[in-house]
């Protein structure tokens, strides 16, 4: 998916940004190791884990994303390809870009998740 | 403003009569082709992107569209000072293979429009096409089209 279109995405906040992932790939949302307090200094540890239903590409050691807060699921979110300028200055991958609620959203490629967003470790029991 | 060029040691690069918007970024003045400028607005709210290069301040929303915003001072290699605020965003067009796309430049202030047609430039690599003398100031001339190359 690297063309203009629309789809259903789970939107979540992380690292000051708003991100989206194909809602059909989300298997579960659970508490991360930091729980509600997010007191750990580990930058990859979030309050929530967004677990996906397939393994990402090599380089990531988890199938979950770390999230500070889940915005919700947005159906028919219109998106377009990542701008060239963004690709030049942001080495990670994304499959599109959109605006939701006046905020820019980067839509993630489930097979090439940005490492800064990937949750590490196991979910809370 | 005196835009008369100093002949040496700068070498002539362009004789086109294009106007340029002078923009202050940190301790440096940058010249942006007026034809590339879409709008100068109060600083847009920028949301950072983890893992981004230092020049990319983040993403903003402008006119209902997502807009990458670059830190102009870092882009042109200018010292930003101790407490950079970047109170304005200069929204420019960058031509790409697929057309053109908007880019925000976080800056300190937009100063004035000058004609660099008589200026002599010294070519520089990267996103800059050169350095020019405007009066007694050296300005760095930015080519927005190189941002999306």
- Percentage of helical residues of chain B? under 10%
The mean pLDDT of chain A is 82
Q: Would you identify the regions of chain B where 5 or more consecutive residues have pLDDT less than 50?
A: 1-16
Radius of gyration of chain B (CA) equals: 15 Å
Query: Main sheet of chain A: which strands, in order across?
Result: 6-1-2-8-7
Task: State the end-to-end distance of chain A.
Answer: 34 Å
Number of helices of chain B: 1
**Element-by-element helix/strand order of chain B:** EEEEEHEEEEEE
**Percentage of residues assigned to helices of chain A:** under 10%
Distance between the termini of chain B: 33 Å
* DSSP helical segment count of chain A: 1
Q: Largest interface: which pair?
A: A-B, 26 and 29 residues
Q: Which strand order does the major sheet of chain B show?
A: 8-1-2-11-10-9
Assembly context of the chains: heterodimer
What does this structure look like?
The complex is a heterodimer of chains A (125) and B (149). Chain A contains one helix and eight strands, in the order E-E-E-E-E-E-H-E-E. In chain A, a hairpin with a 2-residue loop joins strand 1 (5-14) and strand 2. Chain A is mostly beta strands. Chain A has one helix at 84-89, and strands at residues 5-14, 17-22, 26-31, 48-52, 64-67, 69-79, 96-100, 103-107. Chain A starts with a strand and ends in an 18-residue tail after the last strand. In chain A, strands 6-1-2-8-7 form a five-stranded mixed sheet, with no helix packed on it. Chain B is mainly β and 149 residues long. Chain B has a six-stranded mixed sheet, with no helix packed on it. Chain B has a five-stranded mixed sheet with strand order 3-6-7-5-4. The longest helix of chain B is centred in the middle third of the chain and has 4 residues, at 72-75. The model of chain B is unreliable at 1-16 (pLDDT under 50). Chain A binds chain B through residues 14-18, 83-86, 88-92, 97-99, 102-106, 114-117, and chain B through 47-53, 55-56, 58-61, 64-68, 70, 94, 96-98, 101-103, 147-149.
């Amino acid at each position: 998916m690297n063309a203009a279109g629309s789809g259903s995405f789970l939107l979540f906040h992380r690292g000051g940004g708003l991100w989206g992932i194909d809602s059909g790939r989300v298997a579960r949302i659970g508490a991360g190791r930091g729980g509600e307090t997010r007191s750990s200094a580990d930058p990859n540890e979030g309050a929530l884990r967004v677990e996906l239903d397939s393994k990402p590409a090599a380089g990531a050691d988890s199938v979950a994303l770390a999230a500070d807060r889940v915005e919700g699921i947005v159906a028919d979110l219109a998106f377009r390809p990542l701008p060239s300028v963004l690709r030049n200055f942001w080495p990670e991958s994304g499959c599109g870009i959109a605006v939701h609620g006046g905020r820019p959203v980067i839509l993630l490629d489930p097979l090439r998740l940005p490492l800064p967003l990937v949750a590490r470790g196991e979910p809370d029991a | 403003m005196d835009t008369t060029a100093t002949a040496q040691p700068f070498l002539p690069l362009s004789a086109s009569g294009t106007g340029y918007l002078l923009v202050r970024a940190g301790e440096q003045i940058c010249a942006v082709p007026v034809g590339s400028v879409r709008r100068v607005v109060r600083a847009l709210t920028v949301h950072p992107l983890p893992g981004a290069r230092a020049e990319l301040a983040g993403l903003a929303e402008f006119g209902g569209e997502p807009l990458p915003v670059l830190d102009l001072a870092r882009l042109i290699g200018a010292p930003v000072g101790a407490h950079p605020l970047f109170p304005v965003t200069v929204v420019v067009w960058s031509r790409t293979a697929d057309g053109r796309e908007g880019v925000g430049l976080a800056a300190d202030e937009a100063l004035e429009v000058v004609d660099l047609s008589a200026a002599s430039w010294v070519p520089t690599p990267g996103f800059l096409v050169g350095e020019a003398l405007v009066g007694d100031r050296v300005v760095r001339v930015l080519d927005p089209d190189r941002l999306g190359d």
